[in-house]
Design goal:
Elements (H helix, E strand, L loop, with lengths): L10 H10 L9 H17 L5 H20 L7 H10 L16 H23 L7 H12 L6 H12 L4 H7 L5 H28 L7
Helix pairs in contact: 1-2, 1-9, 2-3, 3-5, 5-6, 5-9, 6-7
Bound molecules: ligand 1PW.
Length: 215
């Protein structure tokens, strides 16, 4: 069994990161946002090899963002400052990019943002689920609703395979480090609510700048 300490995935850490990534004036702090994603990677990795591809793809996106943050920590301090910076410099990539160029922060974060909707729906479904529910099915439903239409056929097949191999609910709750049913419901719905706030604030920014469809 898992120890639920130290380097293992902890949902409280995920919650902490997605809570603290909202600044007082409602801006999204990128460093905290990315640390939430890093915790999520640990979650996916503890679900086994079949999540390897999804986890790898996510890591690639996080590394692109880290690259931007490293060179220009002021410009990439918040989502809002990043959008302003990349727009001012013409760095957003409103058109398809040549393979050898580093994708923009706006374009890369949009991928993570869309995936966050999936996670949020999944956590919500899990919070209202019972011992009879199949976690893979819940995950697949959330994916179909939130994310599948943004993905290629190939990626959708890989996702479908991963869902088939999702651990049963009891085991999954252990991965999340909750033992009691009531605790599980509370922790999961709290996390889903925290993520929905981050999602909505981010969505507003992308919408305001007409950037919801960056290629
Ligand atoms: C069980 C918990 C589920 C929570 C998962 C949240 C992570 C979701 C990441 C999805 C990644 C799927 C594979 C990636 C495919 C890429 O094609 C896609 N990337 C993302 C992050 O959606 C689009 O990137 P691209 O190809 O336009 O550069």
């Amino acid at each position: 069994t898992r120890q639920c300490e130290g380097k293992d995935f902890q949902i409280t850490r995920l919650l902490g990161a997605f809570r603290s990534c909202i600044s007082e004036n409602g801006h999204i702090l990128l460093k905290e946002y990315l640390s939430g994603w890093e915790e999520l990677i640990k979650f996916m990795d503890s679900l086994g090899m079949v999540f390897g591809f999804i986890s790898q793809e996510t890591t690639t996106k996080i590394n692109i963002m880290r690259g931007h943050l490293t060179g220009n920590s002021d410009e990439y301090h918040t989502l809002q400052s990043m959008v302003r910076y990349e727009l001012d410099r013409g760095l957003v990539n409103f058109k398809e990019l040549p393979q050898d160029q580093v994708p923009s922060g706006c374009r890369t974060l949009l991928r993570l943002h869309r995936a966050l909707k999936w996670l949020q729906l999944f956590l919500y479904k899990l919070s209202t689920s019972t011992s009879q529910d199949n976690t893979g099915e819940l995950c697949a439903l959330a994916y179909e609703k939130a994310l599948a239409h943004h993905h290629s056929w190939f990626v959708r097949q890989a996702a479908a395979l991963a869902f088939l191999a999702m651990p049963p609910r009891r085991e999954l709750l252990q991965v999340i480090c909750v033992r009691e049913e009531e605790e599980a419901q509370l922790v999961l719905s709290t996390a889903a609510k925290a993520i929905v706030r981050v999602y909505n604030l981010t969505q507003d920014v992308y919408e305001a700048y007409g950037m919801l469809e960056l290629p």
